[in-house]
Design a protein that fits this description.
Structural class: mainly alpha
Number of helices: 10
Shape: globular
Strand content: under 5%
Radius of gyration: 17 Å
Distance between the termini: 25 Å
Length: 193
């Protein structure tokens, strides 16, 4: 586990508040390892709680028409756009799992415009990239492009919220020089035991 040590060392589970440690252990139980980002953010427990409260609110919003895979496509695409190695590798792995496709995450990370994705997914990613790079240029025509594929204004909000939250995550992971867990590199590429 590496970070911009010793300036930003990863937190040790034993020194964390009970609720933060319990959240991390729950992730470890589910995935089989502790993603480094949890330990990086846990350095500041109040920020950890705030980040994951917002994360859960936007990533698990049941009223959204975005699939889990589409949400991870947004994260992988904007993470590539922001040159965040940690988030491209980790969310690319989650994307492979959700889409049951070991190729799509690499295609999306390199250039989503040439990836084997649907026109709806391309419209979602076009909107996310525009929010990420130049949100001030978002116009009615951008919403109309989403509407064409059955996405409504609340879906557009979800895309923007995911883009914004993970833009923050990208920047903090990059500043912290956070390296992806080795487990992410193989996740979703080979069948599970």
């Amino acid at each position: 586990m590496k970070s911009r040590f010793p300036l930003y060392p990863l937190a040790e589970l034993s020194g964390l508040p009970d609720d933060v440690a319990a959240s991390i252990l729950k992730i470890q139980e589910k995935s089989g390892f502790v993603p480094n980002v949890f330990l990086m953010l846990a350095r500041r427990p109040a920020e950890f709680r705030a980040f994951f409260d917002y994360h859960d609110a936007i990533m698990y919003r049941s009223e959204s028409s975005l699939t889990k895979g589409e949400r991870e496509m947004v994260i992988t695409t904007i993470s590539a756009d922001n040159h965040c190695l940690y988030c491209v590798v980790s969310h690319g792995a989650i994307l492979r799992v959700y889409e049951k496709n070991p190729i799509v995450a690499d295609q999306v990370a390199v250039n989503y415009r040439h990836a084997d994705i649907t026109p709806r997914q391309r419209a979602i990613l076009d909107f996310a990239v525009k929010v990420n790079k130049s949100a001030w240029e978002i116009a009615d025509s951008d919403f109309e492009s989403l509407h064409h594929y059955g996405l409504d204004d609340e879906d557009a909000w979800d895309i923007a919220a995911i883009t914004a939250l993970f833009g923050l995550s990208n920047r903090m992971a990059t500043v912290g020089k956070l390296e992806p867990n080795l487990e992410f590199y193989i996740l979703g590429r080979t069948p599970r035991d």
